[in-house]
Design brief:
globular; Rossmann fold; 5-stranded mixed barrel; 7-stranded mixed β-sheet; 2 domains
């Protein structure tokens, strides 16, 4: 059988035998509606189901120049043209298809000059505002304080450069945000805010280029150092990066609107 979907700006066309493979519920939440998808990358995957291997951390992703591997998905890919790829995958049911989608999206986004960030994202005036920082920094809490917006991502964002600027797509993962979910379509990136908790009233301060690059590198989840560094540098040059410093105890939407005005 075959299946098609778009996630993270990547259109997947996957062929496999049997019915043991399916996208998990969390991944289905991030499939882009066909009429809004506008993928920048297409990959055709020939997948086979393999027997269970040794148990490993399912969240770990290993990657090389033309392969990605998780506990239940082994994938080799090759470029067939600008934005077009082919791949062979060995997947383990029931979650291998989902984990392959996450891992291969990151690899192909990187191959196309993009980056995956550890970030939440909200939609403000049809543009994405990304909230970055390490686990526990308060990305989810900050997003929940953006009343009147919708969330695009809870924990991971795929970003790709286009002739019209950088575009963002939500990726699976993260804790629920108490806002409505926005359709997972490509949105222009308005700003990125690095969350830094402190015992003071919240404030937004734009970071200089070097500090902006450091903040982005700390939140990069794309495998491979050089491509990710180049992409982060290009992103820092094109999109304003702020530090959101203070207590996360009051609404943030007005402050974000003011910064983006």
């Amino acid at each position: 059988m075959s299946a098609r979907w778009v996630m993270g700006g990547v259109a997947f066309e996957v062929a496999f035998e049997g019915d043991a493979l399916a996208l998990g519920e969390e991944h289905l939440r991030f499939v882009s509606p066909p009429e809004l998808a506008r993928p920048l990358v297409v990959v055709k995957v020939d997948a086979s189901v393999r027997s269970a291997g040794p148990r490993e951390d399912p969240r770990r992703i290993d990657a090389g120049p033309d392969w990605v591997r998780t506990a239940d998905a082994h994938v080799r890919w090759r470029r067939e043209g600008h934005g077009r790829y082919a791949a062979e995958a060995e997947l383990e049911a029931p979650y291998g298809l989902s984990h392959m989608t996450t891992a291969l999206t990151g690899a192909l986004v990187s191959a196309e000059g993009g980056v995956v960030l550890h970030a939440a994202a909200v939609v403000l005036e049809e543009r994405a505002v990304l909230l970055i920082g390490p686990s526990g920094a308060g990305k989810t809490s900050a997003a929940c304080l953006c009343g009147g917006t919708r969330w695009l991502a809870k924990d991971r964002v795929a970003l790709l450069p286009t002739s019209a600027g950088w575009r963002a797509w939500g990726m699976p993962g993260g804790d629920d945000i108490t806002l409505p979910q926005a359709p997972n379509r490509p949105l222009p990136v308005a700003a990125i805010a690095r969350i830094r908790r402190a015992d003071e009233a919240p404030s937004l301060r734009r970071l200089d280029p070097l500090r902006a690059l450091v903040a982005l590198r700390e939140s990069t989840q794309t495998a491979g150092s050089e491509p990710a560094l180049d992409a982060s540098a290009a992103l820092a040059e094109a999109v304003p990066v702020y530090e959101l410093r203070g207590r996360l105890d009051r609404p943030l939407t007005a402050s974000l609107r003011e910064a983006l005005a």
